[in-house]
Every structure is written in structure tokens, then in C-alpha cells.
Amino acid sequence: MFPNNKVCDVSIDIPPQGNSECFDDDGRPRRSGTLWTASAHITTAVIGSGVLSLAWAIAQLGWIAGPVVILLFSWVTYYTSTLLSDCYRNNDPDTGKRNYTYMDAVKSNLGGAKVKICGVVQYLNLVGSAIGYTIAASISMMAIKRSNCFHKSGGKDPCHINSNPYMIAFGIMQIVLSQIPNFDQLWWLSIVAAVMSFTYSTIGLGLGIAKVAETRTIMGSMTGISIGSVTETQKMWRRFQALGNIAFAYSFSLILLEIQDTIRSPPSEAKTMKKATIISVAVSTVFYMLCGCMGYAAFGDLAPGNLLTGFGFYNPYWLLDIANVAIVVHLVGGYQVFCQPFFAFVEKAAAEKYPDSNFITREIRVRVPCFCHCNINLFRSVWRTAFVIVATLISMLLPFFNDVVGILGALGFWPLTIYFPIEMYIEQKRIRKWSKRWICLQILSVVCLIITISSAAGSIAGVILDLKSFKPFKTSY
Questions:
Q1: In terms of pLDDT, which residue wins out, 359 or 89?
Q2: Does residue 474 belong to any structural domain of this protein?
Q3: Coil vs helix vs strand at 299
Q4: Which stretches are transmembrane (predicted)?
Q5: Same domain, 38 and 23
Q6: Distance between CA atoms of 225 and 301, rounded to whole angstroms?
Q7: Is residue 289 very low, low, confident or very high in pLDDT (cuts 50, 70, 90)?
Q8: Mapping DSSP to helix (H, G, I), strand (E, B) and coil, where does residue 93 land?
Q9: Residues ≥6 apart with Cβ < 8 Å to 366
Q10: Nearest to residue 70, comparing CAs of 243, 210, 202, 196?
Q11: Around Cβ 362, how many Cβ atoms within 10 Å?
Q12: Which of 69, 49, 43 shows the shortest CA–CA distance to 448?
């Protein structure tokens, strides 16, 4: 449905058109995204599995540094996201040439080898997010099974479960959903996922408050986990890893321009995106502070790596089941929000290289009962299925939630959230070198680079430690 209630029958075979009721200024079918659909996409990307590790992250940093770091990350993410949203169009925010993807923006503003570097980092992060979401979803599915097992046995049965069947089940769901051809068609899935994220975050918060009320004690310390529970070296690495966990909780810049490309105009896409960003980041930060702080207050040094699956809570088991079902549903949607840009990139590159291949370019219309019809592309079906299978296998080989989350946060935070947005903004706005603003932006970039290197080192150290006791496809939890 388009303006003036006009229905537009748009086919992919129609050549680019001029600006009209059915087409945008770039000749593509008119975009229909709004402030609220953009906010839903961002919220789905932001309030993901990362919120579940924040109690653990604050436990490593303590009552002072933990909340301060979360607030700093939220401000930096919002600020650099506003810089990035200005790069959606070149020069003029209303009529400039559109950059449909993050890589398009880097190519237009920076060019050269930086485009390839950006592509490698961005798509590695998208692939990594698929792996992280698979691990998190399997942990929640296992938690449902274990909570019911604990309830039936009265806590006598250790209820050890192998994660592999649950990862495979999640992978099968993603194979089906990955056949959705376009990112713009995912708005409904993002809204459902956003609702689920608020559901499990609220349950986690409520259980934390209930735990504090029950014990009448606020756990934790000003400096974080105490020496004795861990060694000094382990505490240092864990603090670094905690920075990566918090960075991952705010990682959505890598798909910001893809989300912005779904927004209709006027007003300009940048104005709508900035409003959507501040709404989403503000709401996310409130939830992060509440969930992270209440989880730490409830468990102190013993705060689990995953608040709802680490079994800091046992009862009411049915409420835990609802929370973990909500997590799984959210991660199903979040997986697609992160992977669709990568799918589109590969399929576009293949179509450009082999334009005459029917296997790659041909759309087969298939009638589906109750759904009228859908378009099937053989290359899309085969390659997306193969991607999900590979991501699932890697998840089965490295099922370490906190470590993987930390690595993903470190991998994407500085280059995609900080460096490229700042450099593109400087280039587009022609900010003079060594000016006051240029110096401030560079200082911000260098500080965040140091944080990224530290968090990556801590997370890698965690993976190495976990691998010493892990046997692929055999270890149960």
C-alpha cells in the first residue's frame, strides 16, 4: 500500500522509473519503512543475546565501572550512528545519491583498499553473529529442558544435556526463514522479535528484583569479582572480555544503512533514522542497566554468564520457560536481521558475475496453499541453506557463549561502529585536518581502538582456556 491508497503492482522486470507514487527517486519501488519499523529493526539487533551477559560483565567490572562503561558505550554508539546515518546519501540529505549498504557508503566516501577491508570486517561480523545467535538459542532451548528436569527431580538430577541437537533444530528453522528473499519483507519478524526481547528482559529484571527482595541483600562490590574467586591474571582477562560483551550488546552499526534504506521519505531518511536510533538506544540502555545491575545485585561474583540460562534462578520454572522461549523467538528474528544483508551481498555479486546463468538469476513462481504464491531462486535456496549449515557446524565446535560474544563485540566495535563512520563523516563534511573537531574525533577513535584490542585479547584468552576442557560434539552441560 502506497500514498493516497494507491496499490502498485511492481515487478522485478520493470526497468527503473522516475520518482512517482510507486517509485522513489532512484527508480526502485517506493520504500514503506517508518520511524517505528526502523526502531523495531534496531531494537531487534541491539537487545539481543548480549543483554543476557551484562550481569556477568558488570560482575567483572564492579558497581562503579560497570554502569559507567554501559553508559559510555551507549553514548558512543548513538553518536557515531548519527554520523553514519548522514552518509546514507552523498552531499545532499534529500536528493544525494543513495548508499544502499555500508560498503556502498565506504566506497563513495573513502574508496580504495578501505572498501575491501570494510567488506571483510562487516561480513565476518555478520557471519559471527549467526554463530553467536545459534549458540545463544541452543543454550535457551537446553535451559527449558533443564528447568523442567530440575523441577521433576527436585534438583537431584544434574540434568546434563548435549547442545548439538538444539543447534541443529535452530539451524533447520533458519534454513526455512532464510528463503525470505528481501530485508524489507522482514518488518513483521523484527516487530515480533522486538516484543520478545522486551519480554525476556523484563522477566530477567523481575527475577533479579525478586531475588534481592528475598535475600534482602545487594551483592557485589565496587571493584568487581574478588581475587580468590579468580586469579589476578584471570580477573584482568575477564575485565577485558567484559568490555567485548558490552560492545556486542550495542552492535548494530554494521546494518544501520541497510535498515535506513527501508525508510520512506520525506522527511529525509537521515532525520528518521536519527530519531529511531535515539529511541532504540535509550530504551535498550535502560533495559541493559536494569537487567545488568539487578542481576549483579542478586548474585554478585556468582552472576552467571547467561542470566536466564546459567541457573542462578530455578523457580518459578514456568516463568523461566516463557523467558527462554521468548529468547529463542527473538534470536530467530535477530539471526535474519543480521544475515539478510550478507545474503543480499553474495547474491548481488553472483548475479553481476554470471548475469546469463539461469541457476543464479531465474525466479520460479510457485503457488503455495494459503500464501497465494512465492518466488523461488535455486541459487538463493542452495547457498543460503549451505551458509546456515556451516554456521551451525562452527557453533557446535565452539559453543562458548561469553567468549564468542566478546570476540564478536571486539571484532565489529572499532572498525564498524567507530572508525569508518568517523572517517566517512570527516570526508563528507570536509572537516579540516588538525581542526578542533578533527582532533576530537581522532581521539575518540584511538581510545575505542585500545578498548577493542583489549577486549579481543581477553575473549581469545577465554576461548583458549575453555578449549582445554572441551571435547567437540561430546561435552554436555
A1: 89
A2: no
A3: helix
A4: 35-54, 61-80, 123-144, 186-210, 276-297, 317-338, 382-401, 407-426, 438-465
A5: no
A6: 5
A7: confident
A8: coil
A9: 373, 374, 375, 376
A10: 243
A11: 12
A12: 69
Does residue 303 share a domain with residue 160?
yes
Q: Which residues pair with 373 in a beta bridge?
A: 367
DSSP-derived secondary structure letter, 431: P
Angle at 129 between CA 128 and CA 131, to 5 degrees: 65
When divided into structural domains, the chain yields a total of 2
Residues 117-128: tens digit of each pLDDT: 888 887 887 787
pLDDT digits (tens, 9 = 90+) for 381-429: 888 999 999 989 988 887 766 677 677 777 778 888 889 899 988 988 8
Residue for grid cell 575518540: 444
471 vs 206, more confident: 206
CB 126 within 8 A of CB 183: no
The answer to whether position 475 is within a domain reads no
Same domain, 92 and 8: no
Domain limits for position 133: 34-467
Q: What is the model's pTM?
A: 0.76
Asked whether residue 477 is assigned to any structural domain, the reply reads no
Spell out the alpha helix ranges (H) of 255-353. 256-260, 269-299, 317-353
**Count of positions (residues) in the chain:** 477
For 390-443, strand residue ranges (E) read none
Are 124 and 12 members of one domain?
no
DSSP state letters, 233-249: HHHHHHHHHHHHHHHHH
Residues 16 and 121 in one domain: no
Please indicate, yes or no, whether residues 103 and 140 belong to a single structural domain of this protein.
yes
Evaluate whether residue 473 is within a structural domain.
Answer: no
CB 3 within 8 Å of CB 21: yes
DSSP H helix total and E strand total for the chain: 15, 2
pLDDT tens digits, one per residue of 28-47:
777 777 888 888 777 766 66
Note whether 302 and 392 are same-domain residues.
yes
